[in-house]
Amino acid sequence: MVYGIVSNLDTTNTLEVFHSKKINEDNIVHVNHLSNLGGILKSGDAVYVMSVNRFLRVGQVLGFGRLCMSKGVSLRFITQPYLDITVGKHWKPAVINQMTKMMYIERSAIARMSSACKYTNEYWDYLCETFEMMNVELLAQTFANDGLMKRGG
Q1: Total structural domains in the chain?
Q2: Which one of 37, 93, 97, 145 counts the least CB within 10 Å of its CB?
Q3: Per-residue pLDDT tens for 84-121?
Q4: Contact (Cβ atoms closer than 8 angstroms) between residue 32 and residue 5
C-alpha cells in the first residue's frame, strides 16, 4: 500500500502530488494520527510526506523513520530526498546523530527556561510546541534539496 502523511501546513497542492503518486484519499493520514499508521504498515509499503517539517517534532521523525526501517517500509520526503528510506537506502549515522543532537538541544533549552521562568501549564505547552516546531523546521532546511547536507554537496 501507498500512504501519505499531512499536517496543517499542507494545501491542495499536497493532495495533487499525492494523487500523482497513486495515494488513495483513504490512505492519507494526519500527522496527529501517526501511531495508527505505524500499526498497519507492513514490508513493501511506501509512505510519502511533502517535507520533514510536517512532523511535530524531531523525535517523531526519528521514531517513525526507525519504525519504517525496521518494518521494511519506504519513507519518502518530497522536498528532502536525502532523508528517504528505501530498500538498500537508510539514514547514515551522521543523520541520526544530527537528529539526536537536535533533540538534546531542544530538551536542554526547555529545561533551562523551566528553571528560570514560572509560567502556566498552557503557556509551557505553547513554548514547548514552539521549540519543537522551530527545531523540525531547522531539520527540514538542513536536509532540503539546496540545504547544507544535500547529497553530493
Answers
A1: 1
A2: 93
A3: 999 889 998 989 999 999 999 988 888 888 777 777 88
A4: no
Q: What is 77-92 written as a DSSP string?
A: ESS-GGG-BBTTB---
pTM equals 0.87
Residue 141 maps to which CATH number? 3.40.50.1390
Cell digits of residue 40 = 498497519
Domain that residue 95 falls in: 1-153
Give pLDDT tens digits for 40-51. Answer: 999 999 999 999
State the Cα–Cα distance between residues 96 and 91, nearest whole angstrom: 7
Q: Collapse the DSSP code of 46 into the 3-class scheme (helix H, G, I; strand E, B; otherwise coil) and give the result.
A: strand
Q: How far apart are CA 22 and CA 59, in angstroms?
A: 29
For β-strands 74-77 and 46-49, DSSP reports them as: parallel
Cell numbers for 138: 531547522
The span from the CA of 125 to the CA of 114, in Å, is 11
